[in-house]
Amino acid sequence: MNEPLSVDLNCDLGESFGAYRMGNDEQLLPFVTSANIACGFHAGDPGVMRKTVQLCLQHNVAIGAHPGLPDLVGFGRRNMAVSAEEVYDMVVYQIGALQAFVQAEGSTLQHVKPHGALYNMAATDTKLAEAIAEAVYKVNPEALLYGLAGSELIQAAKRLQLGAANEVFADRTYQQDGTLTSRRQPDALITDPDKAASQVLRMVREGKVLSQQGVEVGIQTDTVCIHGDGPHALAFARHIHETLQREGIALARPNAQRP
Length: 259
Description:
Layout (H helix, E strand, L loop, with lengths): L5 E8 L11 H4 L5 E5 L7 H13 L3 E5 L17 H21 L6 E2 L3 H9 L1 H14 L4 E5 L3 H8 L4 E6 L23 H14 L1 E3 L5 E3 L4 E4 L6 H14 L3 E2 L8
Parallel strand pairs: 1-2, 1-9, 1-10, 2-3, 3-4, 4-5, 5-6, 6-9
Antiparallel strand pairs: 7-8
Helix pairs in contact: 2-3, 3-5, 4-5, 5-6, 7-8
């Protein structure tokens, strides 16, 4: 008898800082099973980090660090010329900061998911991927590394015997090589909740996604990302959550994928 399907729903949270407010963190938490909390480089600040950790624990949502490039103005979504050594240092620094808040609240860090440009750069750059995986392994070898499904991040984690979760996106389109369509292109985002839900269901059930080139791409789905910074993020998250439940797909934290 086949085991029932299950998938993790994750969302980027804690992206307010100073006087700037972004997202609907408290309203989104009932609809996700894992949260990626900004660590102060692309967004977030110490007070926001602490409060977001506390909110996650109140809602029984697993906590992950969301390290990004040091680019508040660009929200960490602009590529930067950084070396593998620099990436290692900034990821260790950010994981350490968020992990300290998690430990101070008596809990543990479940995972690490790079943010934005850092995530996409490491998806195809072996050296950057290895720097991130090594940073996670040395700070918290029990943590999972969330990375684009089948990417260099996943392969780097496997080489270090680090747990990995293949991530797919509800609201992004794909290229035929399995990478995400660049946000600079007009067709990068899926704004129709029904279309997004259909894409998620197919990725979970069939392990396939239709690329922008019309080619079906095989894809492993351990966790699904729902972005929390869009104007309709809350309605979007609720729709994905309710669709999965209606279709009999359980929502649960991901199992560690270790070699």
